[in-house]
Amino acid sequence: MSPLFRRAPARPPQDRLVTLIGKPDCHLCDDAQRVVERVCAQAGVPWVWKDITQDPRLHDQYWEQIPVVLVDGAQHTFWRVNEDRLRKALTE
């Protein structure tokens, strides 16, 4: 493989971060949290919950999409979290 097309080495799991953005009393957020908890526990990746009702900037940016999952600060998905897709994103 050409040096121009080599992928950067995978970051160690503890250096990754999954952020789940949602709000209380949201059934899709509850479903997403179960998937995020399971996948992150298996991969050894930390995750955090951010509540759009407590952060006006997040509310303005994501209120129509919650739950939203960020992987290392970049939007990975919204509404429904696919367990296999999240796992793949964390292991590549």
UniProtKB/TrEMBL annotation:
It holds the Pfam family Glrx-like. Transmembrane segments: none annotated. It comes from the Bacteria. InterPro entries: Glutaredoxin-like, Glutaredoxin-like_YDR286C, Thioredoxin-like_sf. This is Redoxin. It comes from Streptomyces zinciresistens K42. The lineage of its organism: Bacteria, Bacillati, Actinomycetota, Actinomycetes, Kitasatosporales.
